[in-house]
Amino acid sequence: MPRPTVARVDLDALRHNYREASRLAGHARAMAVVKADGYGHGIAAVAKALAGEVERFAVACLEEALAIREAGLGQTVVLLQGVHAVEDVATCVRLGLEPVIHCERQLDWLAAGNEVPAFWIKVNSGMNRLGFRAAELPAVMASVRALTDAGRGAFLGFVTHFAAADDPDRKTTESQTRYFQDAVAPWPEALLSVGNSAAHFRVDQPLFDWSRPGIMLYGASPMAERCGAELGLKPVMTLESELTAVRWLNPGDTVGYGETWRAEQPTRMGIVAVGYGDGYPRHAGTGTPAAINGQRVRLIGRVSMDMLAVDLTGAPNASPGDRVELWGAEVPVDEVARHAGTIGYELLTGVTARVPRIYSGAEPDTGH
Q1: Which EC class does it fall in (predicted)?
Q2: What are the residue boundaries of the structural domains of the chain, listed by start?
Q3: Quick one: CATH architecture of 11-218?
């Protein structure tokens, strides 16, 4: 029999979350961000499941866009990091991809191409990773106009990215929004896109023409100190395995590498067939929650490559072969992430290839 560790992916929950993103976006339209292999859920399955409702997908790089095309889908795909070589420009034209241009080198590559795709311009409003500052935009847009006046390509609009939208108490997002609006004001015909997942949950935050929901599509929270369920989202991935062994520990017994946990009283312990080789975080320490048959238990000791230990006090009738949820509906991925000192994004995208994805929720007939 195959190893019992699997990631169950609920495509109906995915569609629910996209519809919630669309509702929260108001007058803006929502392009679905499916980068990083659909945040670890499988980019082809995710894109197919959303294809009946999504006009635009967004990805980080050309390889991810190719995966969408290889899945037989014809929606426009936005390349959030733009192109990485001059030859990519022709690929964008051929496949109907829209690169986001963030530097002079990429502008030069557009100008060097025989054909030019439709494209966006990125504004650096304070994230300070990629994009043009406001003072640079007049020169950038002069180059853009030279292209479009010659009938080469089509300028679609401007995008920016928020640095701290997940924290409702910080004013950074308001400042970035004002900076962005002022920077792009000379080009009122341009489409505007600012809204990451967190921006959908900020009161009175304008999302303009296109929002870009990502992590919220997969049921995890983009907001600090809140779980996805509190935001009306449904978990899409359930990481689960089984108990493979149960034993009693005597007072003084230790568990696992480094002897980091020691029993203070007789303790019934279970071993679960999952570890950091599957993408479960090694830095999830004692006390991290899991669930067995709906009952909460806690991790004890260090996570190993292929297994971890749990204290079965909370599930006294648990026995080998019982299902263990590492995260999902009973144990939110955001809660596990907090115990591991990280975020749900990292856990979902970190589930390794040796964990089979098992899909539920029929994929619609996309017509592509």
Answers
A1: isomerase
A2: 11-218, 237-359
A3: Alpha-Beta Barrel (3.20)
User: Are 102 and 84 in contact, with CB atoms under 8 Å apart?
Assistant: no
Active site residue 257: yes
Q: Count the helices and strands in the chain (H runs, E runs).
A: 10, 19
Residues 117, 95 contacting (CB under 8 angstroms):
no
Assigned token pair, 64: 């991810």
Catalytic member of 18, 122, 171, 257: 257
Q: Tell me yes or no: is domain 237-359 CATH 2.40.37.10.
A: yes
Across the range 12-36, mean pLDDT stands at 98
Q: Is 129 annotated as a binding residue?
A: yes
Mean pLDDT of the chain: 96
CB atoms within 10 A of CB 202: 20
pTM value surpassing 0.85: yes
pLDDT at 308 over 70: yes
Catalytic residue of the set 18, 35, 218, 280? 35
- Whether residue 226 is annotated as binding a ligand: the answer is no
Distance CA 146, CA 141 (A): 8
